[in-house]
UniProtKB/TrEMBL annotation:
Pfam families: PRC (PF05239), RimM (PF01782). Binds ribosomal protein uS19. Transmembrane segments: none annotated. Belongs to the RimM family. InterPro entries: PRC-brl_dom, PRC_barrel-like_sf, RimM, RimM_N, RimM_N_sf, Transl_B-barrel_sf. An accessory protein needed during the final step in the assembly of 30S ribosomal subunit, possibly for assembly of the head region. Essential for efficient processing of 16S rRNA. May be needed both before and after RbfA during the maturation of 16S rRNA. It has affinity for free ribosomal 30S subunits but not for 70S ribosomes. It is found in: Cytoplasm. Residues 98-171 form the PRC-barrel domain. This is Ribosome maturation factor RimM. PANTHER family: RIBOSOME MATURATION FACTOR RIMM.
Length: 176
């Protein structure tokens, strides 16, 4: 089985639902039902990574429930409760040219078009209108910045993302 660096957490197994081995599922995917697009799921049980399959699933009230293969009763679900659901990164769909998963951008060096090193992408978040990168500034930042929030706007602010050199070129003023 693969090591943890090749896996992504996509959800969590919740409390039992009923007595026939169904479990509540918390999904971290863009659309909650999207978690069922991936199979198999990986869980870490007793220190070992184990594959599990979904037998059936459905929407229940405002949440999701699933029947897992080999899980037949409430007690078995209870032993899985709160375990994270992971998938192999290879299970993610291929993106179009110029598209990137956030996990690829985290850790990339951010440099202005004029060559000023702004720092490293620490995380990204959504605002509703656009995504935003939080860039951890270098220790020797001439503008005494600790971090910068830079909108992720391709062509407008983001000029180039280079996977090979792990750099993002931006049109952004260092003092902003």
């Amino acid at each position: 089985m693969s090591d943890a660096s090749e896996t992504l957490v996509v959800g969590k197994i919740g409390a039992p639902y009923g007595v026939k081995g169904w479990a509540r599922i918390t999904a971290y995917t863009d659309t909650p039902e999207g978690i069922f697009d991936y199979s198999p799921w990986l869980i870490c049980q007793d220190g070992k990574q184990v594959e599990i399959q979904v037998e059936q699933w459905r929407q229940q009230s405002k949440g999701l429930v699933a029947k897992l293969v080999g899980v037949e009763d409430r007690d078995q679900v209870d032993r899985l409760k709160n375990l994270e659901i992971s998938i192999l990164s290879e299970q993610l769909p291929e993106l179009e040219a110029g598209e990137f998963y956030w996990r690829e951008l985290v850790g990339m060096q951010v440099v202005t078009e004029k060559g000023y090193d702004l720092g490293v992408v620490r995380e990204l978040f959504e605002t509703g209108s656009n995504d935003v990168m939080i860039v951890q500034a270098n220790l020797k930042d001439a503008f005494a910045k600790k971090e910068r929030m830079i909108p992720y706007l391709p062509e407008q602010v983001i000029k180039q993302v280079d996977r090979a050199t792990r750099t993002i070129k931006v049109d952004w003023e260092p003092d902003f």
